[in-house]
DNA sequence: CTAGGGTTAG
């Protein structure tokens, strides 16, 4: 039964959440207001590359094959970094264009006039009429509309464009104006309007140029509409135009934005080579960006090497993008190495470099390192900019260190950078996560008072925060306001909300929301489903799971076209929750339902072609731990083997205490997991060990934990004097305690002294997501008591158990100690993993002193 | 035509 081949799509390998991402129009996601500080970013001097590009063309005649073999395609078979849904539209206002002053003084004067007179449309018309005799050809007008665009004022830019077009007779000049307008709109995230300008231009006979097509492709790229960009590219070829380097670069860029599709990017790259267009530095930088977004660190690395081989200069963009690929892919150490080598190539880290690295550190939980980088940055004389400040503030806010977060806010303002929506969103999210709702309300009011417009993310943080705290009335109010603003929910909004409700055990409400989102045209993604599966794997808080989950739409929903869309279902759900629902189900009944539901949800994912990933796997393993019995857990895994025999075969095999074959499969699975970020990997190891421990497979648990340690899944867990368990689940931590003590015992056996002080850290409060959750500490305390280990809670740190080397040594020498330390399986099997003694610490009897 | 920031599962 378990030997069938898994369906092709159904591997453990991660899918990108944005695979089903509902793309929104950028102006919905980013509500920019004319007063928003985004429009007033400081102007930066143009970046000048010292490298000579012409030399490459000379060095690379024809289209040489890649000097370095890149992984064959499709090489998307790992998990790394694929959980990033990095933003689709990043608008960089105020970034200078490389204008070479082709405009006249009159144009400059007109611009100042327009700017000084404000945004009234009639103003610009009058000014343009006044200046018309003095303004020359397309150059002056393109200058004007670009400058207006740089200030976010697309309305006046359009006005200016329209005026210029009607006063220009030459087709060529009209074409230039159109391309300019399209690219300006593109940079402002107005892809639809850009398309409109393009269509008009083509219809009127001046838009059929490589420039206009390239500009439109770029506009789509900026908004993350990769498929649309490719469509434009095709129609361009169809109308007989030859794409040039810029066209190709823009198209590759598009692949990096709308979900980082390296396969597409690579196809475009090949097409480019085939058509004799030589890639340049920007081509490679864009390819690197695709890798970074797609989590393809290995590919990024070979592209980087390929640049060297092709003698294409590397610049600060190259390095920053490479660093991003490394650090967001979990290779922070590698990123640091690369960063250290930059100066030798005369490419000096800038604020982008630092904020990239800082974010990379923060992402993998290395907060100390992240904070250190800020100091380093200041020492290097690099000024923190808006992004750096917001990043720093967000780190503190996410850690619940609000005093420090506010201090950063103060410093930022003292540097003349006002708090923006991003700043407030970070604070709101932080306070919401800590359940400090008064602060949330206060900040939300303050934000509005400061004329900042809450956006989708603001409301998302508010609403899910309130839901987590059971403040459904507040959630309803926030949601109503959200709708009133004309904002539209997206998949992340829903996933976040669903997760919040799942965490409260309200699975049935989640089912309703799932319906709602789909009837709204938003496809759930793997994150959405993982949240739901996680709900089944959680121990506490499941106080209201309804009996009829099985019959709910959670499992029976079949397609996206739900009947009529009544009023808002979300409000309905909140209302029901607000008045409190009946229906606590008896414990056993619930558990049995859960077990079936997990399968049901998994099948649903399969049916909807949403690829499960490691997080799904971890969630399922956690759900296994919540199963009523060993039999249920093994049945669940057995069933899941039909979908993915490798992954679930390993879990099943380990649970059953199977033999060497299972173990070798497990090892290759571990290898695969290792290629993901450490937090993903540790979650996996935690879940797996927990399940094994829970069902009494303690030796198996120990082996897994040892593998995890060997692969450095949990950072610096283990020295002679200190065992740090703060990143571990309770099962993993307990298996680790045994193993560590046995290891210390071997040290003793070998005749070494123990350190003076021994400590075990459980990270109470400090590292938990919610301050004060001491579950791990309690589990470890109970374990230490039960095995009679002579540790006690440290006075200064209640999450730390300490003892002296001498006391522990004496205890280890006691005759009964070895027996309690050596893990025994609760169940005996014929082919047990216990054959793998070689991996375990030395179990020789200790010589008496 | 190229680089960093705010949200989701573990």
From TrEMBL:
<feature type="repeat" description="PPR">
    <location>
        <begin position="455"/>
        <end position="489"/>
    </location>
</feature>
<comment type="similarity">
    <text>Belongs to the PPR family. P subfamily.</text>
</comment>
<protein>
    <submittedName>
        <fullName>Pentatricopeptide repeat-containing protein gun1, chloroplastic</fullName>
    </submittedName>
</protein>
<feature type="repeat" description="PPR">
    <location>
        <begin position="350"/>
        <end position="384"/>
    </location>
</feature>
<feature type="repeat" description="PPR">
    <location>
        <begin position="385"/>
        <end position="419"/>
    </location>
</feature>
<feature type="repeat" description="PPR">
    <location>
        <begin position="315"/>
        <end position="349"/>
    </location>
</feature>
<dbReference type="InterPro" id="IPR036063">
    <property type="entry name" value="Smr_dom_sf"/>
</dbReference>
<keyword id="KW-0677">Repeat</keyword>
<feature type="compositionally biased region" description="Basic residues">
    <location>
        <begin position="19"/>
        <end position="42"/>
    </location>
</feature>
<dbReference type="Pfam" id="PF13812">
    <property type="entry name" value="PPR_3"/>
</dbReference>
<feature type="repeat" description="PPR">
    <location>
        <begin position="280"/>
        <end position="314"/>
    </location>
</feature>
<feature type="region of interest" description="Disordered">
    <location>
        <begin position="19"/>
        <end position="63"/>
    </location>
</feature>
<dbReference type="InterPro" id="IPR002625">
    <property type="entry name" value="Smr_dom"/>
</dbReference>
<feature type="repeat" description="PPR">
    <location>
        <begin position="613"/>
        <end position="647"/>
    </location>
</feature>
<dbReference type="Pfam" id="PF12854">
    <property type="entry name" value="PPR_1"/>
</dbReference>
<feature type="repeat" description="PPR">
    <location>
        <begin position="490"/>
        <end position="524"/>
    </location>
</feature>
<dbReference type="Pfam" id="PF13041">
    <property type="entry name" value="PPR_2"/>
</dbReference>
<dbReference type="InterPro" id="IPR033443">
    <property type="entry name" value="PROP1-like_PPR_dom"/>
</dbReference>
<dbReference type="InterPro" id="IPR050872">
    <property type="entry name" value="PPR_P_subfamily"/>
</dbReference>
<dbReference type="Pfam" id="PF17177">
    <property type="entry name" value="PPR_long"/>
</dbReference>
<feature type="repeat" description="PPR">
    <location>
        <begin position="244"/>
        <end position="279"/>
    </location>
</feature>
<dbReference type="InterPro" id="IPR011990">
    <property type="entry name" value="TPR-like_helical_dom_sf"/>
</dbReference>
<dbReference type="InterPro" id="IPR002885">
    <property type="entry name" value="PPR_rpt"/>
</dbReference>
<feature type="repeat" description="PPR">
    <location>
        <begin position="209"/>
        <end position="243"/>
    </location>
</feature>
<feature type="domain" description="Smr">
    <location>
        <begin position="723"/>
        <end position="812"/>
    </location>
</feature>
<feature type="repeat" description="PPR">
    <location>
        <begin position="420"/>
        <end position="454"/>
    </location>
</feature>
């Amino acid at each position: 039964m378990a030997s069938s081949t898994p369906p092709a799509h159904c591997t453990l390998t991660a899918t990108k959440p944005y695979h089903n991402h509902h793309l929104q129009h950028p102006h919905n996601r980013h509500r920019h207001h004319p007063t928003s500080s985004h429009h007033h970013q400081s102007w930066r001097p143009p970046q000048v590359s010292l490298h000579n590009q012409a030399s490459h063309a000379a060095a690379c005649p024809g289209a040489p094959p890649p000097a370095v073999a890149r992984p064959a395609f499709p090489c998307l078979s790992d998990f790394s970094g694929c959980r990033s849904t990095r933003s689709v539209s990043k608008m960089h206002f105020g970034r200078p264009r490389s204008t070479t002053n082709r405009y006249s003084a009159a144009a400059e004067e007109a611009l100042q006039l327009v700017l000084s007179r404000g945004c009234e449309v009639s103003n610009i018309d009058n000014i343009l009429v006044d200046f018309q005799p003095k303004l020359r050809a397309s150059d002056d007008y393109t200058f004007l509309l670009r400058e207006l665009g740089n200030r976010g004022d697309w309305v006046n830019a359009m006005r200016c464009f329209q005026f210029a077009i009607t006063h220009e007779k030459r087709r060529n000049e009209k074409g230039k104006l159109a391309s300019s307008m399209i690219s300006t709109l593109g940079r402002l995230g107005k892809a639809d309007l850009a398309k409109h300008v393009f269509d008009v231009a083509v219809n009127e006979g001046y838009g059929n140029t490589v420039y206009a097509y390239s500009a439109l492709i770029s506009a789509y790229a900026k908004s993350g509409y990769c498929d649309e960009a490719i469509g434009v590219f095709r129609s361009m070829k169809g109308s007989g135009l030859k794409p040039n380097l810029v066209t190709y670069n823009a198209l590759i860029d598009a692949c990096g934005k709308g979900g980082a599709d390296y396969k597409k990017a690579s196809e475009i790259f090949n097409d480019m080579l085939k058509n004799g267009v030589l890639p340049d530095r920007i081509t490679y930088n864009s390819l690197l960006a695709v890798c970074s977004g797609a989590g393809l660190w290995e590919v990024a690395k070979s592209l980087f090497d390929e640049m060297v081989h092709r003698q294409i200069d590397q610049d600060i963009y190259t390095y920053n993008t490479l660093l991003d690929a490394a650090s967001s892919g979990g290779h922070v150490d590698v990123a640091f190495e690369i960063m250290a080598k930059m100066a030798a190539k005369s490419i000096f880290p800038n604020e982008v470099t630092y904020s990239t690295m800082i974010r990379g550190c923060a992402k993998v939980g290395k907060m100390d390192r992240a904070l250190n980088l800020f100091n380093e940055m200041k020492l290097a004389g690099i000024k923190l900019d808006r992004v750096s400040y917001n990043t720093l503030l967000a780190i503190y806010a996410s850690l619940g260190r609000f005093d420090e977060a506010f201090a950063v806010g103060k410093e930022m303002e003292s540097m003349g950078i006002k708090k923006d929506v991003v700043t407030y969103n970070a604070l709101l999210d932080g306070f919401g996560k800590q359940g400090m709702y008064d602060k949330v309300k206060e900040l939300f009011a303050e934000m509005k008072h400061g004329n900042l417009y809450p956006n989708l993310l603001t409301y998302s943080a508010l609403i899910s925060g309130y839901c987590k705290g059971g403040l459904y009335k507040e959630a309803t109010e926030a949601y109503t306001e959200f709708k009133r603003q004309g904002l539209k929910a997206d998949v992340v909004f829903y996933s976040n909300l669903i997760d919040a409700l799942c965490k409260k055990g309200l699975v049935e409400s989640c089912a309703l929301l799932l319906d709602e989102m789909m009837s709204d045209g938003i496809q759930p993604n793997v994150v959405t489903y993982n949240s739901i599966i996680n709900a089944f794997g959680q121990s506490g808080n499941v106080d209201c799971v309804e009996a009829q989950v099985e019959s709910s739409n959670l499992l029976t929903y079949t397609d996206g076209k739900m009947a009529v869309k009544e009023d808002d279902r979300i409000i309905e759900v909140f209302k029901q929750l607000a008045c409190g629902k009946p229906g606590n189900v008896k414990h056993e009944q619930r558990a049995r339902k859960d077990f079936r539901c997990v399968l049901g949800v998994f099948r649903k994912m399969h049916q909807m072609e949403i690829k499960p990933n490691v997080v799904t796997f971890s969630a399922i393993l956690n759900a296994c731990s919540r199963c009523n019995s060993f039999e249920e857990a093994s049945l669940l895994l057995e069933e899941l083997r039909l979908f993915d025999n490798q992954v679930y075969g390993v879990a099943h095999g380990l649970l059953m205490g199977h033999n060497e074959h299972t173990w070798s499969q497990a090892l290759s699975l571990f290898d695969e997991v290792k290629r993901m970020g450490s937090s993903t990997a540790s979650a996996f190891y935690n879940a797996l060990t927990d399940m094994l421990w829970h069902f009494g497979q303690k030796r198996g648990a120990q082996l897994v934990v040892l593998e995890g340690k060997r692969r450095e899944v949990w950072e610096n867990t283990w020295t002679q004097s200190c065992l740090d368990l703060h990143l571990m689940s309770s099962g993993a931590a307990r298996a680790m305690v045994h193993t560590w003590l046995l290891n210390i015992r071997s040290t003793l056996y070998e005749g070494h002294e123990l350190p003076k002080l021994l400590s075990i850290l459980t990270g109470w409060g400090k590292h938990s997501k919610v301050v004060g959750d001491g579950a791990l500490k309690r589990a470890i305390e109970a374990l230490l008591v039960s095995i009679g280990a002579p540790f006690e809670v440290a006075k200064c740190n209640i999450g730390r158990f300490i003892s002296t080397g001498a006391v522990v040594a004496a205890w280890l020498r006691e005759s009964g100690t070895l027996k309690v330390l050596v893990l025994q399986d609760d169940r005996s099997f014929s082919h047990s993993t216990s054959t793998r003694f070689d991996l375990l610490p030395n179990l020789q009897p200790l010589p008496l002193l």
